[in-house]
Amino acid sequence: MIKKGEFTEFLKFGWGLAGVGLxxxxxxxxxxxxxxxxxxxxxxxxxxxxxQGLRIGYMNGEIDEVGIVFFGKKNIVFDLDLNNVDAxxxxxxxxxxxxxxxxxxVVGIKWRSYDEANLNVFCIITKGNAFVLFDxxxxxxxxxxxxxxxxxFSDAR
Length: 157
Fold this sequence. Notes:
The chain has helices spanning 6-13, 26-33, 97-107, and strands spanning 16-17, 20-21, 38-41, 45-49, 54-59, 62-69, 78-79, 90-91, 111-114, 121-126, 131-135, 141-147. It is of the alpha+beta class. Strands 3-4-5-6-12-11-10-9 form an 8-stranded antiparallel β-sheet, with helices on one face. Strands 1-2 form a two-stranded antiparallel sheet. A two-stranded antiparallel sheet has the order 7-8.
């Protein structure tokens, strides 16, 4: 499904994962990825859950979110294909804020902190407009996603 190194590209450029991206029709997700593990929501809006924590959100038949849910998923491991002793080489549900930021810096992905209303999470946004959320209690990654929204990297302060 999600190939080696694809997670890094996702953070750099946004758009999507596993051949499925924002603004595509929901039929593309079903055709490309097959039947989801679960469907949450209604016919008009909700999200599909797939292996590897992949989550595809939709509204009115169009994909409006593509992301990965790490929280509570012990079997998710993304190989970053770095072979760099100065940074992490995998991302899992145990990856911490400082490890992840070091990885972004090593591979040259520009990022900013994003001041979100929910003060229980630390959120960053990459130049590719991918959001990455971390739980402040554990310091570990919970989600990485791109969404169809008016919030962009240039807006983050």
